[in-house]
Amino acid sequence: MKRHVRPYGDTTGDGMVQTSFTLPVPAGPQADGAAQQLANKMGIDPAMVVHSHPIGDDFTFFVVYGSVRHIVDLDDVRVVERDYPLLPPAEVNTAIKKLLRRKLVVVGACIGTDAHTVGIDAILNIKGFAGEKGLEYYRELTVVNLGAQVSVPDLVRRARAGKADAVLVSQVVTQRDAHLLNTREMAAAFREAMGERRPLLIAGGPRFDPLMAADLGVDRVFGRGTTPGEVASYLVHALQHRKEHA
Amino acid sequence: MALLDLDPRVVATARELAAKAAEPVVALAKAHTTVAVERATLRLAGITGADTTHRAGDVPWVNRVVDTVREHCGLEHGVALPVFHALREHDLTSLTHLAEATAAGQVRYTLPTGRDRERARKAATAAVTRGLRTVDRNRAHRDKLVAKLGDPPQRPWIYLIVATGDIDEDVVQARNAARAGADVIAVIRSTGQSLLDYVPEGATHHGFAGTYATQENFRIMRAALDEVSKEVGRYVRLTNYASGLCMPEIAVLAGLQRLDMMLNDSMYGILFRDINPVRTFVDQRFSRQVHARAGIVINTGEDNYLTTADAVDAAHTVTVSQLLNEHFAHEAGLPDHLLGLGHAFEINPDLPESFRLELAHALLARELFPDAPLKWMPPTKHMTGDVFHGYLLDGFFTLAGLLTGQSILLVGMMTEAVVTPFLSDRDLALRNVRYVLGAAGGLREDFRPAPDGLIVTRAHQVLGEAVDLLHRIVDDGLLDAIADGTFGLMKRPATGGRGADGVVEKADDYLNPAADLLEAHP
């Protein structure tokens, strides 16, 4: 793989992209020109406004194709690479047995006003996600799914009472950064209540940036498309790490 | 025309079993009241507004009054008698004054006896009757507007969601949606409202992923849609949510503000919001009685099961829930034409023949409930963020709805699971629907599934599985079935869940004029 890359349309290096947007301008030649200008400013040059369509009297929708002049430097790309091996469920179970000699307790919840349990359910419910069974399926995991709209104090209490090894919170709603505020509040509450003995804290949701873990005060952040197997493998990895450094 | 050749005896058995399964739950609902039912009664009797001086923020007057009555003399007799007795005893001119005096700690509620009881009963009945008259007038007004402006020219009706959090922005979006072809506008509620044990007050501008359901927001949106209805020459319907802890109150507010459809499922709150099962069944019965009186179409939430459970494996749980919803609705006085039973296009598109399976399930619902305005819900679970693929899936969803004669079509958004729809997303989605309706509008008359083909066989299989499950539910009891995770894989024990402390067993002398009037004239 080359270090410097451009988008690929049908020829290496052609830089071709496709985008669509709406402008608050009535349809017509002026609107098309405005779309052209925006595309140019986005770095698409030359830009072809291949489609424009009025939405009501005041808006126009555009589809634009064109070549971007930007170049991506792969050396400058910063992402969280998975720093632990992906284990099949049987190996996760064996590892937990060896590490803890008891079941590992996972408490999951959607905190704050968020009522979207789809994320936490995909990870926890036996039904699972993307063809992988959820954490309930793992013999050596005890899963407590508190469901939606759990308050932070309630979560701390339940995690403590249940002697949770790990706490998973899911946040889907992102209006006014609710997901970030809620997660920080949760991390602070666990720190205050339990200090170093707090469980592993894991946040997940489609709009989270995995790079934000430290900033949010949690151990790990999982973004869009995370599967139950990745979470289970991470739990084993993190517990091993904790034990080695205890 | 029947295409599936369902055995009428099996269908009858399914209905009998649903009735049997529901029987103990209906008895439970009749034997209890809840704080929300009592508050709804006071709203019908004319209490509006909130205590703005309370330290907890705006607390609706109905909450203050019901909580105080409960403290003084319990709720097992109903609030109507103590409230209307106190009104006369303290010589107050209105219920709002009574509420203010209650907040100031000046009212001592007692249960009247003898002639006082009779007087309080009469006064309460008169007040509630006035509220119901408003509901009746709204229903008549809707009928008049529909007669004048007309219903949508096509079936399915096109149902579109707005959800900005700000009622004023919602109005702009709703008007545009109606002009672009929407027949039904649903205003999604703010995340978390279902778990509030009070109804917020006034016009609101700061919801999370939706707009708070308040009486004033209802009024504003209905007025806006009345205007745009005239402009587009058809009556544009308004939908909101009678669900969560305030289900009965929101049903009353919907009746008072002429909403046209309400989401109102018999089990959704239990399964997906962890609301106490008894609370839900009591609240649901009262709210459905109100909907029946108001001529409001209820929308049930079977689509939700398929977002947690597998749409093929759990297809029969949808049928079972539809049969239960139908029975609970009939029992509460709702006729078939107000039963928007729900189901959804949620089968994994990678599964071979997934479209034919969708047709089988949708057709089964159509033929089991021929007179119900079925609500057909778009794919959400398998919308991945690949908006291009999602757009195609939504097209197939609309085609399935068309072929199987669905009544209300919730327009699918290609941005499902990505962002709240852009203006352009909604426009593209409506163009998608219009294309399918235009290109294949009459295809239903050519659609004749082979008598022993996959579609017919599968529909029979699902109905058979539904009957088997109903047998088990009758044997175990519906509450236990819910506790065991039969629906949507959620396990909800009857004693658990939110709002359980708001449930009260009725005493022998319980009186609620609203319940009595609704029972007598649904």
Automatic annotation (TrEMBL), chain A:
It comes from the Bacteria. Coiled coil: none annotated. Residues 103-246 form the B12-binding domain. SUPFAM superfamilies: Cobalamin (vitamin B12)-binding domain (SSF52242), D-lysine 5,6-aminomutase beta subunit KamE, N-terminal domain (SSF117778). GO terms for molecular function: cobalamin binding; metal ion binding; protein dimerization activity. Transmembrane segments: none annotated. Pfam families: B12-binding, OAM_dimer. This is Beta-lysine 5,6-aminomutase beta subunit.
UniProtKB/TrEMBL annotation, chain B:
SUPFAM superfamilies: Cobalamin (vitamin B12)-dependent enzymes. Residues 4-517 form the D-Lysine 5,6-aminomutase alpha subunit domain. It holds the Pfam family Lys-AminoMut_A. GO terms for molecular function: catalytic activity; cobalamin binding. This is Beta-lysine 5,6-aminomutase alpha subunit /D-lysine 5,6-aminomutase alpha subunit. It comes from Saccharothrix carnea. The lineage of its organism: Bacteria, Bacillati, Actinomycetota, Actinomycetes, Pseudonocardiales.
